Amino acid sequence: MTVVEGWRIMPLSEVVLLQRGFDLPAKDRRPGSFPVLTSGETGGTHDQGPVKGPGVVVGRASNLGRPKWSEGDFWPHNTTMFVKDFMGNEPRWVYHLFENTDLAGFNSGSVQPMLNRNYIARVPVMVPPASEQREIAEVLGALDRMRLANIELARATDELVSTCFTRAVREATYPGATFADVARVSGGGTPSTKVPEYWEGTIPWATPTDVTALEGPYLESTSRTITGAGLRSCSSELFSPGAILMTSRATIGAFALTQVPTAVNQGFIVVEPHDETLRYWMLHDMRSRVDEFIAMANGATFLELSRGNFKKLEVRVAARHVMQDFATNAEALHKSARHALLENHTLTELRATLLPELMSGRLRVKDAEKKIAGVM
């Protein structure tokens, strides 16, 4: 480990004091304004926040060592350890320190994963002066704020389109046209997992997880890909950009618009309007009717909305000029929202590149700022 001038190598126990979080069974949680930080994705809220913010927790019982940040007071769950004392270090820099430190190998559990603070006490870390800690935290924090602003912009834009649809649909009529009448309604399939030649190809293959994880209704890529042989072996086709995907089993009513040619698994209903004018209209019509779709679902193991039942549903349509005006406005607004989220891909990649360089001292803050200016 090369030491940068002015920096020190210190054991983790001399940088922060960690303490196990507090028990809080689900039955004891009460609605409140304080976040419950767990080692999982979500923890909900509680009416007490015994630890003053800003603060950091790290996964103890799962996601070992992965940090979460709280700007305000919070409840650290017993599946985490929280920083009880930052020992004079910049709290946000400490958060980035844990982001950049792999503690997964320090599992002390015999049955289930467990991170013990005594096991990681001697882990050596590079510590810059407090002033440089603040500068590093500010650079990375600026990228995080830009990402959050883009997410909020995309969310607000999407909500605006939904509001426009609610106003426009008041003029809707019900002529008896069904989804099957105005669109091609399809499903998907899964290539055999026993045939390696079907997988790791160049064709995006979507699962419901790809859609539920989106920050906006724009599917740019998928976590898994298949080959041409894999596509031919399953019941999915390669859907063109603009196809409306709706999850139809277990979680019913998560939506996406394909942005690249994409195949899907059997957890979707895929809707492709015959008339391009109806694309955004149908997307927002479907999104406003999720409760109706769930009520029509059935299944012993998990709820599923069948394509057959979906096809029979009537589509709310309005006068031609109303739908055309909505389509024009919706396309412009969705384009703006998608652009903001695409910018986040660039920001995320840039942040992932800068984090280890800044935290190791290989890249100094002034040079990082130049890189950011060059990209943005």
Structural class: alpha+beta
The Rg value, from CA coordinates, equals 25 Å
Mean pLDDT: 94
Helical segment count: 11
Quick structural gist:
The protein is α+β, with helices and mostly antiparallel strands.
What do these coordinates show?
It is a single chain. This protein has helices at residues 91-99, 117-120, 130-168, 179-182, 208-212, 228-233, 278-287, 290-296, 307-312, 320-360, 365-375; strands at residues 8-11, 17-20, 34-37, 45-46, 55-59, 67-70, 75-76, 80-85, 124-127, 183-186, 199-206, 218-219, 224-226, 244-249, 251-258, 263-264, 268-273. It is of the alpha+beta class. It folds into three domains: 8-127, Adenine-n6-DNA-methyltransferase TaqI, Chain A, domain 2 (Alpha-Beta Complex), CATH 3.90.220; 128-170 and 319-376; 173-317, DNA methylase specificity domains (Adenine-n6-DNA-methyltransferase TaqI, Chain A, domain 2), CATH 3.90.220.20. A five-stranded mixed β-sheet has the order 10-17-14-15-12. A four-stranded antiparallel β-sheet has the order 2-8-5-6, covered by helices on one side. A three-stranded mixed β-sheet has the order 4-3-7, with no helix packed on it. A hairpin with a 1-residue loop joins β14 (244-249) and β15.
List the SSEs and their pairings.
Layout (H helix, E strand, L loop, with lengths): L7 E4 L5 E4 L13 E4 L7 E2 L8 E5 L7 E4 L4 E2 L3 E6 L5 H9 L17 H4 L3 E4 L2 H39 L10 H4 E4 L12 E8 L1 H5 L5 E2 L4 E3 L1 H6 L10 E6 L1 E8 L4 E2 L3 E6 L4 H10 L2 H7 L10 H6 L7 H41 L4 H11 L1
Parallel strand pairs: 3-7, 11-16, 12-15
Antiparallel strand pairs: 1-9, 2-8, 3-4, 5-6, 5-8, 10-17, 11-13, 14-15, 14-17
Helix pairs in contact: 3-10, 7-10, 10-11
